[in-house]
Amino acid sequence: MKSEHTKIILAQALMRLMQEKNLDSITMEQLISASKLSRRTFYNHFKDKQDLVCWIFDWDVNNNLGVADIIIDKAGQKKYFIDALRNHMYRNRSFYVNAIRSTVGNELRKHIFAFIYGYRHQQILKILGDRELDPEGIKFLTSYFTHAIVGNTIDWVENGMPCPPNSLDGGYRDVTNRCMRFILDEYAVNNDTANPSGAE
């Protein structure tokens, strides 16, 4: 049995259980029984339930979204990546609300932050283009704007996703992107401006 196939079986079993039970209350025995695999097989692939939850998130993104500023969804419509991610989480809200509300070693929150941090970092470098900004400045801005989007999203999920994601997106996305561009335009340095003569 291929590793990917085994992971999918375990993921599907956990997701089925999470439709009826709180993640924290699901025992390893229940997960093993639902997957019809052995405990040894599980630990050959994952260190614990939280590790499996994070794998499900990664699999979801890679197979249903991809990572790009603009994504073409299954209906053929263009969406910003953050919009597409929230829409996907909303469609699978029984899983994501349950996972985010976990109070035992919750790894998904940190995992989502690290994931969005990487996305924001690439986005900032793309906006910078040929201009320069000191590494600490890039790190600060990446962290700042990651906290903005992840904090907003996690609050929404933790509250049970009481409204569709487009209620969050609208102006919020535009404000974030405009702020990033404004700050980078303000502080980034053009190579030719920093050293117009070309001399050392």
Structure overview:
By secondary structure, this protein is mainly alpha-helical. The chain folds into 2 domains: 1-46, Arc Repressor Mutant, subunit A (Orthogonal Bundle), CATH 1.10.10; 50-194, Tetracycline Repressor, domain 2, CATH 1.10.357. It has helices at 3-18, 28-35, 39-45, 49-65, 81-91, 93-100, 108-128, 135-158, 166-187, 191-194; strands spanning 70-72, 78-80. The chain has a two-stranded antiparallel sheet. Helix 1 (3-18) crosses helix 2 (28-35) and helix 1 (3-18) packs across helix 4 (49-65). The protein is elongated, with a radius of gyration of 20 Å. The termini are far apart.
Summarize this, please?
This protein has 200 residues and is mostly helical. Helices cover 69% and strands 3% of the residues.
Radius of gyration: 20 Å
User: Which secondary-structure class do the elements indicate?
Assistant: mainly alpha
Number of H/I helices: 10
List segments where confidence is low: pLDDT < 50 over at least 5 consecutive residues: 193-200
Cα(first) to Cα(last) distance is 61 Å
Strand content range: under 5%
Shape: elongated
Mean pLDDT: 85
Approximate helicity band: 55-70%
CATH second-level architecture of the largest domain: Orthogonal Bundle
* Helix and strand element order: HHHHEEHHHHHH
Q: What's the CATH C level of the largest domain? A: Mainly Alpha
CATH topology-level fold name of the largest domain: Tetracycline Repressor, domain 2
Strand order of the largest sheet: 1-2
Number of domains: 2
For this entry, what is the oligomeric state of its chains? single chain
Number of beta strands: 2
User: Tell me about the biggest sheet?
Assistant: 2 strands, antiparallel
